[in-house]
Design brief:
The complex is a heterotrimer of chains A (about 325), B (about 300) and C (about 300). With about 325 residues, chain A is α/β, with parallel strands linked by helices. In chain A, about 30% of the residues lie in helices and about 25% in strands. Chain A folds into two domains: about 230 residues, P-loop containing nucleotide triphosphate hydrolases (Rossmann fold); about 60 residues, no CATH class. Chain A is built from eleven helices and twelve strands. Chain C is an all-alpha fold and about 300 residues long. In chain C, helix 6 crosses helix 8 and helix 7 crosses helix 10. Chain C is built from 13 helices and no strands. The chains are: A alpha/beta (about 325), B mainly alpha (about 300), C mainly alpha (about 300). Chains in contact: A-C, B-C. At the B-C interface, helix 7, helix 8, helix 11 and helix 13 of B face helix 1, helix 6, helix 7, helix 8 and helix 10 of C.
Chain lengths: ~325, ~300, ~300
């Protein structure tokens, strides 16, 4: 059996508000196997970032995890004390945040910000810290690392900043790295470079969880994909199956939207309607209001995840179990 | 998103474009003033309580003669420095006068020294601020240097110098506090004007040839109103505090006018024998200032959040 | 950065000259001859005229002003009418006391304000938050003489812990410094809190949490360092109001400082003394602002490297 770096089971995240509770993450289960890159794809607000935050233990108040288990290399993260969690963050699990322009502290030198991770988690002597940072800078492709070490974030370009953030995330060699929209804020040319860099991040005993709304990014990086919609996983599959044979109507819509761009089609293919407000989800399938084939049953009864092929699961009443 | 749509329709409709621009300028404000105040009332009970306290103070000042059986000047020497009792709720002063009565009459002066200079400095500061921000160039630097000079002098010393020049008395207190406060108003309104000057709707108004004075009056001034309300509310307590300090030093309001600061000035020598002489008007000042501050904070929260950081 | 500082220095000199001119003119337009006021109703007219000429008060105002400024540049602010001594000498003795008082007060205000601000922001809407913010709003709303008299009444008169007035030793400074710093502590804690709460929403705070910083570590090492910039500007502004408040505090606690000198000057209709104290205090405020500007530049790398 292959060994999993991250296992999430039936995760629920709830935000209480004046108009009742909303659940940005609703019964999400996923696996990140060792040596693999796993993606979560979905529109903004579908709960993919929240899932990542849940793993990091960084959900902003008043949100909280109400149910479910998150295991990192077998350790249940929800049972950790805040202190234990702090020693885990940055060393065992780290996150690459989505806004390189604002994710670095403006009044600290870039080098010092990366150094801080080493200070917090290792006993590396003071004299070696700087060299370690410069080494990692070189490894993530920062030119003139000695000079950049002393730069403030505002003196670096977006691509360089993202490299600094990646350096920060990988310097302690964490078992799991989470990249939340790692390239969204970057220029297209820089995007390609960063994606190339990220492909090399995964080694045999680590895992990478990539979160993106961009199927292109997912296609380039991931081995396995989860499609999220309105807080739920609607489809999961390995990357090739998903692109060759998308099953869920929502996934199909996503593919068409990308495809129509690629083909320079006259009519932009979009998914009709808007993402339902999380406060007013239908009792049944959350996509049924936008689905062309939605039926009464879809509206009233929540479909389960149905196995349609090896490693391919879809949450839709229209699917038939494989082998039936 | 909204603005984009409307700027399109505007281009096709030049004749009453100015009307449109004005509508557009109000679009940024999703809610009317009344709705915002309603929101404040719901979310910020302290502001509502403060408004109620202020209302009570004003009523007390207006109906002072009805509310108390005592005269505010009449001496009663057998009753000097009497401690608070049922007959004299807050005790009596060195002349045997009822302190509650003096407090009610004193609130007339103290509230006036809060409101009148705040209003005058608002008018002066807004006019100069808009002019400075809109005209730019030499006018701007002249006005702003003048404001710099006023703001550089510690306010108490500035007030003392002006009071020395003008002499004591209520009218001169008004004038002094106005001269002390206008510069701060002018600076904030100027920066607001600079912001507004670069917005699409003012530029659009300029493009279609609306005159400068009209732009200032019809487009910039109305958009400064929320800021002005906040500045006005927050200048009242600062004026009351400065006046009370001046009167405390004997430089402000002169007898027989009685402000709370002057009462404390007179009561100071009895601090250890009859502390209520000082502390009752002191608490009155504090409650009033606190109420205006709470109200001002509440208004600022709903009217212009970007000012929070200043 | 050096160029920036030079520019500000130049601006400050202009503002200072403007202040001098304004105070000078304002005090000269007071009706009546100050010499006659000083010497009383029964003074000999010839003597008054001689004195007026001696003091140069018969010259046109602009010549008087130029004389005054050239004198002031050499440290000569004229002679006090009421005390008969050079104004610079009087201010020299008084300034030490005012400076000590203001520094003690500033120290108290900064320490208390920053501590309360941080602990309030650490748990928004918590008990400490409501308590500190309520108290600080009360601090901002209390007239300074009330705080001073209250402290005097409770700690000196009732409890006999500290001297009622005078500054014979450091204990004498305690009550005046607290009275003077009380207002500033209120404003500083409110600013620290609101700035920190804004900063805690920033993305780099998440980054720091992601590194494994604890809540407290994030607050102190990342958020506070960034909050320091607006707080420093505020502190400089507070310095001006501290000197304003010193007028009251020194009067209540009978401290021989610049503020009390100014009050005495008004009581004695002593124009040179009032002029000198107002100008000198303004100079101190301007220097304080200049220092704060420089500190800001040093602390904010975004400005530092631009020049």
């Amino acid at each position: 059996m292959e060994h999993n770096i991250l296992e999430i089971d039936h995760l629920h995240v709830v935000f209480p508000s004046s108009k009742g509770e909303t659940s940005p993450v609703n019964d999400v289960s996923l696996r990140v196997p060792a040596g693999k890159t796993v993606g979560i794809v979905g529109e903004s607000g579908c709960g993919k970032s929240m899932t990542a935050r849940a793993v990091m233990g960084l959900i902003h108040a008043p949100g909280r995890i109400t149910e479910g288990e998150i295991r990192l290399c077998g350790r249940d993260l929800r049972k950790l004390s805040e202190k234990e969690y702090c020693s885990l963050r940055g060393s065992e699990v780290s996150m690459i945040f989505q806004e390189p322009m604002t994710s670095l502290n403006p009044v600290m030198k870039a080098g010092h910000q990366v150094e801080e991770v080493l200070r917090l988690h290792t006993d590396i002597p003071e004299s070696e810290l700087k060299q370690r940072v410069i080494d990692i800078f070189r490894a993530v492709g920062i030119t003139e690392p000695e000079k950049r070490y002393n730069c403030y974030p505002h003196e670096l370009s977006g691509g360089l900043r993202q490299r600094v953030i990646i350096a920060m995330a990988m310097i302690c060699r964490p078992r799991l790295m989470i990249a939340d929209e790692p390239t969204t804020a970057l220029d297209v040319t820089v995007q390609a470079q960063i994606l190339r860099l990220m492909k090399d991040l995964v080694s045999d005993d680590t895992g990478l969880l990539v979160i993106s709304h961009d199927l292109g990014v997912i296609a380039k990086l991931c081995d396995y994909v989860y499609v999220m919609y309105a807080g739920r996983i609607v489809e999961e599959s390995d990357i090739f199956t998903l692109f060759d044979d998308p099953q869920h109507p929502y996934t199909k819509g996503l593919m068409d939207a990308v495809g129509s761009l690629r083909r320079d089609a006259e009519v932009l293919s979009t998914i009709p309607g808007v993402v339902p407000s999380l406060a007013h989800l239908p009792a049944g399938c959350s996509f049924c209001l936008r689905c062309e084939n939605g039926s009464d049953r879809c509206e009233k009864e929540l479909p389960g995840l149905i196995q349609t092929g090896p490693g391919h699961k879809v949450r839709c009443h229209l699917m038939k179990e494989a082998g039936q | 998103m909204f603005q984009g749509k409307h700027s399109d329709s505007r281009i096709q409709k030049i004749p009453d474009a100015e009307q449109d621009i004005r509508l557009l300028s109000q679009l940024g404000e999703e809610q009317t003033l009344g709705k915002k105040l309603g929101r404040m009332a719901k979310e910020n009970p302290l502001a509502v309580i403060s408004a109620a306290v202020i209302l009570v103070l004003i009523l007390g000042a207006v109906f002072a003669p009805v509310l108390t059986p005592y005269s505010y000047t009449g001496m009663d020497l057998r009753n000097r420095l009497a401690a608070p009792s049922a007959a004299h709720l807050f005790g009596t002063d060195e002349g045997g006068r009822d302190i509650l009565t003096r407090l009610l009459y004193g609130s007339r002066i103290s509230l006036l020294t809060g409101v009148v200079p705040a209003l005058l400095s608002l008018v002066l500061g807004t006019a100069l601020g808009i002019l400075s921000g809109f005209a730019g160039g030499k006018t701007d630097s002249l006005i702003m240097r003048l404001a710099d000079i006023m703001l550089a002098i510690p306010s108490m010393l500035l007030a003392m110098v002006i009071m020395y020049t003008l002499g004591g008395g209520l009218g001169n207190v008004f004038l002094t506090l106005t001269l002390v406060n206008w510069a701060g108003v002018a600076r904030i309104i100027r920066s607001e004007t600079l912001k507004l000057k670069n917005t699409e709707y003012v530029e659009a108004a300029r493009v279609i040839g609306v005159s400068k004075s009209r732009i200032m009056l019809r487009h910039i001034l109305p958009n400064c109103v929320p800021t002005m309300i906040v500045l006005f509310t927050l200048n009242i307590p600062s004026s009351i505090l400065t006046e009370s300090s001046l009167s405390f030093l004997g430089l402000g309001v002169q007898a027989p006018d009685a402000s709370w600061g002057l009462m404390i000035n007179a009561g100071r020598q009895y601090l250890y024998t009859a502390p209520w002489l000082c502390f009752v008007p002191g608490i009155a000042i504090m409650v009033t200032v606190l109420a205006f501050n709470f109200l001002g904070d509440g208004l600022r929260d709903v009217l212009d959040p970007h000012q929070n950081r200043e | 950065m050096i160029r920036n500082i030079c520019r500000r220095l130049g601006e400050s000199v202009i503002v200072l000259l403007g202040v001098a001119l304004m105070i000078f003119v304002m005090l000269r337009i007071v009706p009546g001859n100050p010499v006659a006021t000083m010497m009383g109703e029964h003074a000999d007219l010839a003597v008054i005229e001689r004195m007026t000429a001696e003091l140069g008060l018969d010259q046109p105002v602009y010549i008087q002003f130029i004389r005054y400024i050239t004198g002031a540049l050499k440290g000569d602010f004229g002679t006090s009418y009421s005390l008969g001594k050079p104004v610079s000498f009087l201010m020299g003795t008084a300034f030490g006391n005012t400076l000590k008082l203001a520094l003690f007060a500033a120290l108290f205000a900064w320490a208390l304000g920053i501590a309360c601000g941080i602990s309030a922001a650490a748990r928004k809407n918590g008990l400490a938050d409501h308590l500190f913010m309520g108290v600080s709003l009360m601090g901002v709303s209390m007239p300074i003489f009330m705080v001073a008299m209250l402290l005097q009444y409770v700690f000196a008169y009732h409890l006999h812990w500290l001297p009622i007035s005078g500054i014979n030793d450091w204990r004498g400074f305690l009550l005046p410094a607290v009275a003077l710093g009380w207002n500033s502590a209120g404003s500083i804690s409110r600013l620290v809190r609101s700035t920190l709460l804004d900063i805690l929403q920033e993305d780099y705070i998440d980054t720091a949490r992601g590194k494994g910083r604890t809540q407290a570590g994030v607050l102190i090492f990342h958020a506070f360092r960034n909050a320091l910039l607006p707080v420093i500007t505020m502190m400089a502004l507070q310095f001006s109001s501290l000197l304003s408040g010193a007028v009251i505090t020194e009067t209540v606690f009978s401290i021989n400082g610049i503020g009390r000198l100014a009050v005495q000057a008004i009581a004695g209709r002593d124009i040179p003394l009032l002029e000198g104290t107002a100008l000198f205090t303004t100079l101190v405020v301007i220097l304080g602002n200049l220092a704060a500007d420089c500190l800001y530049d040093i602390l904010d790398p975004r400005i530092r490297k631009e020049v």
